[in-house]
Amino acid sequence: MSFPSSSIWAPRINALEVLPAPHACQVFLAGDSTVTNQPADGYPYAGWGQMLPAFIKADAAVSNYARSGRSSKSFIAEGILEQIREKMKPHDYMLIQFGHNDQKRDEGRCTEPNSTYREFLRQCVDMCREKQATPILVTPVHRRSFDSKGRLKDTHGDYITAVRELAAEDQVPLVDMAALSLEYFNRLGPEGTKSVFMWGRPGEFIRFPQGVMDNTHFQQRGAAQLADMVVGALKSLGLQPLSLFLR
User: Fold this and answer.
1) In CATH, which superfamily holds the domain spanning 23-238?
2) pTM for the full model?
């Protein structure tokens, strides 16, 4: 049996639009230069938040709002927290790490660990909860500062204690990067930590022909190691569904 061609009908696709699948959740980062995405012309400078996407599955997205030079106070005053609020949705997460610049004495950034520092951190926590998202407090990563016996010195003092106490009081999940980095840096020692921080010999990095010695900021391999520690701590917290998205 045969049919005339005019009687045969077949559907035809004239156009196809492929849209990206929505992420199951976003992981927002609030912090300073030790967390931020450093500019490409600053290679190999990197914040640990910059390396975090390598440890997160494609189902989740990392949105890094950390900014160099910011304290908990200036981060909020400049409206950066409000920018996060506008993007945040229920079941998202936010990691909050401040402290390095809260120690500065200028009016725009200075906070006191047992009063204003805690108050600004609590504003971040409360905003997340208002948006039905999960806040995660992070104690500040230690600087590369060793005593004469080669033991790491604590340069953050009461700021670390304040984060731990606030996490306990308000029942906020805590990633204790102060404790983790203390153990890690002591294990590496004064020489070994140079590969974590932004240290380079003359001629080693194009941007720093005279060499560089930075005991606060990280180079990419160090930032990646710290990001791995953050993810390990998050896995230990067992937060759901976040744990499903961690590599």
Assistant:
1) SGNH hydrolase (3.40.50.1110)
2) 0.90
